[in-house]
């Protein structure tokens, strides 16, 4: 209602989509029953000492905690990592030996490392286990049937994941992936030399879980990302922080 619009206006939050959940303005609002936030996860977030959620966190957290598909655009340095890791961790709840349930892809190894480190912090004392693929060539020792049972969350660049999927037999099993997240999706889908698009399609196709949640995060709004999202995702919410640039 009016208050919701005022909050969005104040923080330059633009939304597109049907029945977009209201933004939050404090992490304490996540205690509401509708979000079922794990107490331990809440403690981990509060332990960082952030005074309030950033604009992208204000809007993306409610959207993703309510299991909606999301395409999010917010400037560099605006706290996107927490905005996608929190709902993943909350959705997975606790460690299971059934195999990988969340996949986060980023365009460079360095970015993957940063996400991995943030995930280790945020999953503290939850029991959830996160893995980052460092060398595809060392994969046979770490993956296959064993890896499936060790980790809940996987962070990687697309190349390595696709390489492992293409082995016979495949060294990764994505049938249990419930969360599919692209960070820096604008860069991942950029046309040109390092075109990840084909890899992404292969990887997405391997994630056959019928109820998987999908989220794309970028610094800029780009047509390839919007096209992909609109083509593949039902009931999509789009969130842009600041000036929409295309
Ligand atoms: P982005 O992915 O949007 O570029 P990051 O997720 O890397 O941004 O976050 C940038 C910095 O902001 C990090 O150092 C992170 O710890 C910090 N940060 C995240 N959320 C908040 C918040 N709510 N308040 C203050 N700082 C935050
Ligand atoms: P590393 O830094 O350990 O080399 P890479 O992600 O580059 O990690 O992958 C390691 C190996 O996996 C490469 O030597 C390459 O043979 C193979 N590989 C990676 N991505 C692909 C791909 N998309 N198609 C085929 N082979 C790949
Ligand atoms: Mg980022």
From TrEMBL:
Domain Helicase ATP-binding, first and last residues per copy: 61-239
Compartment(s) where it occurs, according to its Swiss-Prot or TrEMBL record: Nucleus, Nucleolus
Domain of life: Eukaryota
Family under the similarity heading: Belongs to the DEAD box helicase family. DDX52/ROK1 subfamily.
Name of the protein: Probable ATP-dependent RNA helicase DDX52
Segment of the intact protein contained: 91 to 336 of 582
């Amino acid at each position: 209602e009016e208050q919701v619009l005022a909050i969005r206006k104040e923080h330059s939050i633009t939304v597109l989509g049907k029945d977009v959940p209201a933004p939050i303005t404090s992490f304490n609002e996540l205690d509401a029953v509708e979000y079922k936030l794990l107490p331990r996860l809440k403690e981990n977030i509060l332990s960082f000492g952030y005074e309030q959620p950033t604009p992208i966190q204000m809007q993306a957290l409610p959207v993703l905690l309510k299991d909606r598909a999301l395409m999010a655009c917010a400037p560099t340095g605006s706290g996107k990592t927490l905005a996608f890791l929190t709902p993943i961790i909350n959705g997975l709840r606790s460690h299971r030996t059934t195999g990988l349930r969340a996949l986060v892809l980023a365009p460079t190894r360095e970015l993957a490392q940063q996400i991995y480190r943030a995930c280790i912090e945020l999953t503290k004392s939850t029991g959830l286990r996160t893995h980052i693929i460092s060398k595809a060539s060392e994969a046979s020792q770490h993956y296959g049937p064993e890896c499936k049972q060790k980790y809940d969350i996987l962070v990687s660049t697309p190349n390595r994941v696709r390489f492992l999927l293409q082995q016979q037999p495949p060294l990764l099993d994505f049938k249990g992936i419930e969360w599919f997240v692209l960070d820096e999706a604008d860069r991942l889908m950029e046309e040109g030399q390092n075109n990840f698009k084909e890899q992404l399609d292969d990887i997405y196709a391997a994630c056959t879980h019928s109820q998987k949640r999908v989220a794309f995060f970028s610094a800029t709004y780009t047509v390839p990302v919007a096209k992909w999202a609109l083509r593949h995702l039902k009931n999509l919410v789009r969130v842009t922080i600041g000036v929409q640039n295309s």
